[in-house]
Amino acid sequence: MAHLLLLEAPGGNDFDILQAALAVGHEVTFFTADLAHYQRNGSLEAYLSRARAVIEIQPFSYAAFEKSAAAIHGETPFDGILCLIDIRIIEAAALAERLGLRFLNPQTATLLRDKYRVRCALAERGIAQPDFALATHNGELRNAVSDLGLPVIVKPCDGYGSQNITMLLTDDDINPLIDPLDHYLPCRTDYGLGVTANDRLLVERYIEGTLIGCDTLTLDGKHVMLGINEKSMFPPPFGAIQGSCFPSDRFDVAPVREYVFAVLDAVGFNDGASHTEIILSAEGPLLVEVNPRLVGAKIPRLLNLAFGRSVHRDLIDLHLGIPPSAAAYRKPDGYAVSRWIVAERAGTLADIRLPQTPDRRIKQVEILKTPGDAVTPPYQNSDRIGCVMALAETRAQAEQCANAYVSQVELAVI
C-alpha cells in the first residue's frame, strides 16, 4: 500500500478522496493551512482521525510546506501527492517536482491559475473561444465591457467554484447611477486558507447555450474522458448550480471530446484529473474554463453512482502511475442526477425536515448547513444547503425522483 500526501480538502468538508484512499489500505498524511477551517464544518474528528498524520502549516508558505513534507518524505517516503483544491495546485505541483512524484507539471499548474493567460494560450493555438479581455482596475473594466459589448461575464482570473461571477446582460446592469463598474475593484475576495483574490479580472462575451462539464483523467499526456456532465442553473439573478445529470444523453460526445483534448494539449496538461466546463453554443463547443483537478460540488459521487466504481480510487491509482481504463468508462449503469436544497429567502436556518420515506432510487442525501447557520437564496454555490442524488434507468426517472425529494424538504428560516 502507498503513503499519500493530501493537501487540503475541497469545501472544508469533502473527504471523499481520503475515504477512498483509506478504504484500500493507503496511508494518508494530511496538510492544511488551517485546522479550524475543517473543525468549523464538524468533519475533522470523523475523517482526519484516521489519517497517518495531520500537519498544520500556519501561516502557510511554500517554503514551510516543502520543508515539513521533505522531512517526512526522508523518513517515510511519499508515493503520491493529491490536491483537489485550486488555490493549492501550484504548491502541490512544485512539491511533486521536488520529490520526483507524479503530478501536473508546475508550468501548467501556474498557467491554469490565471484564466486570462489560459485564454491567451488557447488563442495562440487557434482554439475557438469567446472574445475576452483583461481588467486590473475599474477603468480597464469599463473599457473592456465597452469594447466587447453586452452581454458579458466578469470573473476573477484566479477564481474557482463559480465564486464572484458577475453577468452584465443589459444596459441596466451598468447604469451609471449605480456605478457597478466604477466601484468593482479592489475587492480582494477571501478564498479561505489564507488566500485572497489578486483582483485580476477576466471579461468575456456571454454565450447562449447549454453548460456542460467534461471530466478527464490524464496520464503522461494521454487523456481518458469520463463523459459529459450536464449542469442546470438556478434562474437569474441567482448564479449557483441547481443540479447535474451524468451522463448527458443529449449531445454527441465525439466533438466535445475532441475539443476538450485540444484544450488540454494546448495548456500542456500531462498528469492528473481535469474538469473542463464548456458552453455548447450555436457556434459549437466554447470554453468556459478548465480546472486542474477533479470536479467539485459532490459531482464525483454522481460519476461513482453511474459507473458503479470509484472515480476517486482511479485518481489515486493514476497518481501512482496506474493508467485509467477507458473501457471502464464507456457504459454507465444508469443515470445519476443531483439537485440542491436552497433557501427561498435570507435569514437563519431554524430547522430542516427531510422526507421520512424517500424513493428507493434516492441514493445519497447530504445536508451541509445546520440550524443556526445563516442562509440566503442561491446567489453562489456556497449558499446551497444540501444535496440529494438519485440513480435510475432513465434520465427522466432520475430527475423526477430528485426533484420530488427536494420539493418535500421543509425548511424553517427565521
Structure description:
The protein is of the alpha+beta class. The chain has four domains: 3-103, Rossmann fold; 131-205, Dna Ligase, domain 1, CATH 3.30.1490.20; 207-333, D-amino Acid Aminotransferase, Chain A, domain 1 (2-Layer Sandwich); 335-414, D-amino Acid Aminotransferase, Chain A, domain 1 (2-Layer Sandwich). It contains twelve helices and 21 strands. It has helices at residues 16-23, 35-39, 44-48, 62-75, 89-99, 106-111, 115-124, 138-148, 253-266, 299-307, 311-319, 395-408; strands spanning 3-7, 27-32, 53-56, 80-82, 132-135, 152-156, 166-168, 190-192, 195-196, 201-205, 210-219, 222-233, 241-246, 272-281, 284-291, 335-341, 347-353, 362-367, 374-375, 386-392, 410-413. The strands form five sheets. The protein has an eight-stranded antiparallel β-sheet with strand order 15-14-11-12-13-16-20-18, with helices on both faces. A four-stranded parallel β-sheet has the order 3-2-1-4, sandwiched between helices. A hairpin with a 7-residue loop joins strand 12 and strand 13 (241-246). Helix 4 runs parallel beside helix 5 (89-99). The longest helix has 14 residues, at 62-75. The model has no long low-confidence stretch (mean pLDDT 92).
